[in-house]
Write a structure and sequence with these properties.
Nucleoside Triphosphate Pyrophosphohydrolase, 188 residues, 2 helices, 12 strands, 3-stranded antiparallel β-sheet, 4-stranded mixed β-sheet, single chain
Length: 188
């Protein structure tokens, strides 16, 4: 059974360790991670959550996401989740690009470069139904937020610029540009 470290509302470790899924009070927080894998064109690989997932089955999400296990650091967890969910190894340089607080925890978003092909992926069927890459034709911008996980929607509205694209099989792809590392003018 997976276990996670417990943090307080200021992200200080409490010394407690709880099993995954155990109910807890609002003052006890966990750490989760998401990884956004970008190609050279700044497009992000997205994954579709398994239909067997308890939360948001079948929704499109950022490249990878998961919980940080007890004793594990965020960057270490991010690289582990990429290996588990997509079957590839990536280097994640530096600390999280951004952290979002949510009720019950903290969500660290890491950015990494990956220029592989979809055929390089080995999807973890319990977690990932499908993945979609940047090999797409452009189309008119369209709203994808209705089928994105809430975390993806928050990330896209707070930190990233999104436009809709579709691949040859008419599957959605998000073209998301890195804005974490450069200053963006207000209203851009």
């Amino acid at each position: 059974m997976e276990r996670w470290d417990v943090y307080d509302l200021d992200r200080r470790p409490t010394g407690l360790i709880l099993p995954r899924g155990q109910a807890h009070t609002a003052e006890l927080c966990q750490l989760v991670v998401h990884v956004c894998l970008f190609n050279k064109q700044g497009e992000m690989l997205i994954q579709r959550r398994s239909l067997e997932k308890k939360g948001y089955p079948g929704y499109w999400d950022v490249s990878v996401g998961g919980g940080v296990l007890a004793g594990e650091g965020g960057r270490e967890a991010a690289m582990r989740e990429v290996r588990e969910e997509l079957g590839i190894a990536v280097s994640i340089p530096g600390p999280a690009a951004v952290t979002l607080a949510f009720e019950g925890g903290f969500d660290d978003y890491f950015l990494a470069d990956w220029n592989g092909a979809l055929s390089d992926l080995t999807l973890q069927k319990e977690e990932v139904l499908d993945a979609n890459g940047p090999a797409a034709r452009r189309c008119s911008p369209c709203s994808m937020t209705a089928r994105l996980l809430p975390s993806g929607r928050a990330l896209s509205s707070c930190c990233l610029t999104c436009t809709g694209t579709w691949d040859s099989r008419n599957k959605p792809i998000l073209q998301i540009h890195k804005l974490f590392t450069k200053k963006v003018p207000v209203g851009a």
